[in-house]
Amino acid sequence: MAAELRILTLPEAEVPAELKLRVAELQDLAWPGPPGPSGPSAGPVHDPALRPLSMLLLDGTRVVAALDVLSKDLVHAGRTYAASGLSTVVTDPACRGLGHGRRLVAAARATARDGGADLGLFTCDRGLQGFYESAGWGSLPGAVLVGGTAEEPFPSDREGFDKVTMAAFFTAHAERHRADFPHSRIALHPGTIDKLW
Ligand SMILES: CC(C)(COP(=O)(O)OP(=O)(O)OC[C@H]1O[C@@H](n2cnc3c(N)ncnc32)[C@H](O)[C@@H]1OP(=O)(O)O)[C@@H](O)C(=O)NCCC(=O)NCCS
Asked: Residue 99: CB within 6 Å of ligand 1?
């Protein structure tokens, strides 16, 4: 029953192993990796430097949806912002279309805001723009998020990608300079592990 659902929010490293394993299984279903002997594991997925915060929507002990909030400082148009983004958003295929994803993605927006981020920033496939908008996120027309590193950039407009940059402006600092973001290239550079976080 929906009323019994609760959200568990924990640093990725503190998620109990059995829950982490289930999240890894859901991630593996959504983004199958190359076949290998190991399979999904209870180990960390994200770069610890991005302070990964896991959010799990639980029905009792069952994981129905999960995501991670990643954070780093961003310099854009000469100004520094605390930025947080969503990563590895997934709902159990057995219970998609029931509003679980929207609920968790909306909660993550509040978590990012309450965690001190100036702005929320991430990319998604164009087909999911409406899904994120229905959870309170906005889109940045023409904006390209540049992932990877300065030496090895991984831009969201690379060949074969059809990505939209989603955002939320939380603080007065971010709101004041909001116009700097649409139709710009945003050098987020989250690193080599979470290339586009
Ligand atoms: C995307 C995903 C997390 C959505 O989870 P969900 O729990 O099924 O989403 P919800 O039930 O909250 O859906 C909310 C709305 O988004 C829409 N939506 C959900 N998934 C969608 C998709 N893949 N494409 C387009 N619209 C979608 C739903 O139709 C619904 O709209 P409605 O209220 O008008 O009917 C889920 O489909 C999933 O795990 N996909 C695989 C992993 C993935 O692509 N993650 C996103 C990475 S950016």
From this structure: yes
